[in-house]
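Friendly challenge for the regulars: who can give me the structure tokens for this chain first? No prize, just bragging rights.
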Amino acid sequence: MQPAPDHAEGSCFDASGFGVIKPEVAGNGKRYNLHPCTSTQWLSPQSCRASFVAGAEWGAIRIPFREFEAYRSKSRFQVER
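First reply, four minutes later:
Bragging rights claimed.
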């Protein structure tokens, strides 16, 4: 799944006023990775990621921005972009 908000061409959402991403997830008890896209990292091999475990029941998880680490990139997670 790759949700993407509908922004005007060249614009981006500034998430610097927030501290976490809180998705609703369900899975099989295994570890998953969340790779948010930014305006400077939009190709899937180059991203930041955070891991989480999703149990069988649907529920919200909290992933603080500080937990996102560079993956195949040297760029930090830029919440303002």
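Strands lie at 20-21, 24-25, 31-34, 47-53, 59-60, 63-64, 69-71. Residues 26-71 form one domain. Your move, everyone else.
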